[in-house]
Structure formats: C-alpha cells, structure tokens
Design a protein that fits this description.
mainly alpha; NADH dehydrogenase activity
Length: 396
C-alpha cells in the first residue's frame, strides 16, 4: 500500500518506490531461502538415512523437523574463535563471499506466475551470463577461507577446491552454450518460453554435462575432495567455528536448492506445466525432483580421488560439451535450411525429431567414451609358484 501511494504522488517518488520494492523482495527472498535451506538440511539427512537403512533425525519436533533450528542455536552459541596466525580480514570475509553469490543467483530466476503475475526479482537480458559470472566467485571465496586460516589442511583443501571449481566451470559453460544456441537469448524468461519441448529431451548430452559440472561446483559427493575428512580434517573450513561456520554451512546446503532452480529453468521448462496448477507450483515440483536426484547421487556414489575428478573434467566432460555444441549447432543450421524455425525458435515438431536423434547419439557417444577413456576392468594375474615352494624337506 505504501508503494502504491508513493507511486501515486508522481514520477518524482517512483525511484523510492522501486528501491523499497527491491529491498522488500530481496529481504523476502533471503528469508525464504534461509528457511528452505533449514528444511532441506532436515530432508537431506532423513533421505540419506533411508538410503542407509536407518532413521535419521527424529528427536526434536515431529519427525525431527526442528533439528535444523537446534543445530543453528548450537552453532550460534559456540565460541567464535580466530587463529592467532590467521589473516583476520580475509578469514572473516570468506564466509560472506561464499554465501552472497549463492543468494544473488536467485535474482534472475523466473519462478513462474502467482496471481497472474510473473514472479522474478529482475528480468535481466543477460541473466545466464550473470549466473556464470557470479558462480565464478566461489573459487575465490574458498581460496580466501583456506588462505586466511593459515592452516596446512585448510590451504590444501582450498587449493584443491580452486583447481576443481575452475576446471568444472568450463564444462558448465559449454552446457549453457548449447542452451543459448537453441533459445537464441541470454534472458532466463526467454529461455523458458523457447522450451516448447524441454531441453532435457532435446539435448540430453548437454543436460548430463551441466548436471555433472554443477555437482562438482557444489563440491558434493562424489566431488567432495575439498573437505575429505580422512585426508584434510574438514578442508577449507577447518578453523571456522560459531557463526562463521554457520554461514559456511548455510552456503553449502543452499547450493543444491539454487542449482535445482537453475537446472529447472534451463532444461525442465521452468514453470511450464498443465493449467490446473499455477506455474510456481510446477517450478517447485521440478526443483524437488532435481534435489532428490542430487541426494540420490550423494547417497550412492563413492568419493573420487582428486586425479579422477580432474581427469573426468578434462578428458570426459570437456569433450562431451564440445561435441554437444557442434551437434546442436549443426541441427540448428539444418532447421534454418528447411524452414523449421518460428520467430527465431525451433518448431515443436523439429524439436521432437531432435530429441529422438540426440538421445540415440548421446547413448552411443557415452558408451564410446566409457570404453576409450574409462579404465578397463582389472584382471588379477595368476600367481606364479616359486621353485622354492616344491623343494623337498631334508636331503640325501
């Protein structure tokens, strides 16, 4: 009501109304994301417990749903210590630098329609470039956390993290490039509108590359070498405690939610769905499915070694990403040649044909890559008996 009254006074107060609206929506998104992350931590622990045939949190509240709030209170009440040898400004800024980009991604995510209105904070015409640029800050933040701690395990974990995140940004960008070729726009809303057939069906190879790279960018299993407990204690956050550790914890568990929102927008048609439910509900359901798949990965796959992680990025995902771009570009040129475009977008019939062809090609290419790049099954050599084993006991 206040915003409407300010706008009614004339154009001179329009900037103030815009500013207050932006602050209000930002405050709302931050609080919603914090509460969603709290619920996600409970959901993840319960789901992983089911995968491992145990109960999970079940003490605080019904079904243990108040466990996240108990964890937050415990972390806040703990002493916030800083090592004597630490670089205090860098050590303090690292958790904020890791959390802020995760929240900023939600600025350009179109959540669908609510009460016949499009729900998004900002409809940037370069929304996907904004996401790529913001996510690149994570590698700097992780290195800041390790370097500022002046701890050998933290520094080693942060160096691993920086190398891994920079390596996997390239396959992730290649997966995004194929989306841009088909949509013809950098705006997230236009990418959603161009998906008369979801892009996960049209270019499954690009989806697989993006999902694998995004999982590595989150440092989640099987790409969690950054904080391998058996090797590095707790990795880059070894020296953190209290509220600083709570912020790092929040950023880590908020990342799957944000990743699910980006995947839903780029490959699952965003808020598109049947008319009997609002677009925002469809968006939330698709996000839930993506989050469940990410939890499935974490619950079933073992942790990879650091050499396997880096080799997978450069030997497998990089090649698949380049091949996917070449394939999509050729198919897009053929669509123009045979007049299968409508206002710059591909027709639905042509996208269905692409879906059938690309799934066959994707399965064939992955099988070939697995046999060429993947390691062969280890065969144990037959033991060779020693001549000494058959010597008789005693002598003539």
């Amino acid at each position: 009501v206040i915003l409407i009254e300010l706008i009614g006074f004339g154009e001179s107060f329009g900037w103030l109304a815009t500013l207050l609206a932006g602050i209000s929506i930002s405050f709302l998104i931050i609080n919603v994301m914090v509460m969603a992350t709290a619920f996600y931590t409970w959901f993840e622990r319960r789901m992983i417990a089911r995968f491992q045939v145990r109960r999970g949190p079940n003490r605080n509240g019904p079904f243990g749903m108040l466990q996240p709030f108990a964890d937050v209170l415990k972390l806040i009440m703990k002493e916030d210590t800083i090592p004597d040898e630490a670089d205090k400004p860098v050590f303090t800024l690292a958790p904020i630098a890791l959390l802020a980009p995760t929240l900023m991604i939600m600025i350009v995510i179109p959540f669908g329609t609510f009460i016949n209105k499009d729900a998004f904070l900002s409809n940037l015409n370069i929304g996907i470039l904004f996401i790529v640029g913001v996510t690149s800050v994570n590698s700097i933040a992780i290195f800041m956390a390790g370097w500022g701690s002046r701890n050998k395990y933290a520094i080693l974990g942060s160096m691993r993290g920086a190398a891994m995140l920079i390596s996997y940004e390239i396959p992730m960008a290649l997966g995004i490039t194929s989306v841009l070729i088909l949509s013809g726009s950098l705006a997230m809303t236009e990418i959603v509108r161009s998906q008369s057939v979801w892009f996960i069906l049209v270019m499954p190879m690009g989806f697989f590359v993006f999902m694998a790279a995004s999982t590595a960018e989150m440092s989640r299993t099987p790409f969690d070498q950054i904080e391998a407990e058996s090797e590095l204690g707790s990795g880059y956050n070894t020296e953190y405690s209290g509220i600083k550790f709570a912020v790092l914890f929040l950023a880590e568990f908020m990342a799957p939610i944000v990743t699910a929102a980006v995947v839903t927008t780029l490959f699952l048609g965003g808020s598109q769905g049947f008319d009997f439910l609002p677009g925002g509900i469809w968006f939330a359901l698709k996000m839930f499915i993506v989050i469940f798949v990410l939890l499935w990965f974490r619950s079933t796959w073992p942790r990879l070694r650091i050499d396997q992680i880096m080799g997978f990025a450069w030997k497998t995902l990089f090649g698949l990403g380049l091949f996917n771009i070449f394939l999509v570009a050729v198919e897009f040129m053929l669509a123009r040649e045979f007049n299968q475009t409508n206002n710059g977008s591909l027709t639905t019939d042509y996208m269905l044909i692409m879906s059938a062809v690309n799934w066959i090609i994707t399965i064939a290419v992955i099988l070939i890559m697995a046999n060429v790049v993947g390691r062969k099954k280890y065969t144990r050599p037959e033991p060779t008996p020693s001549p000494l084993a058959n010597m008789g006991i005693g002598g003539n």
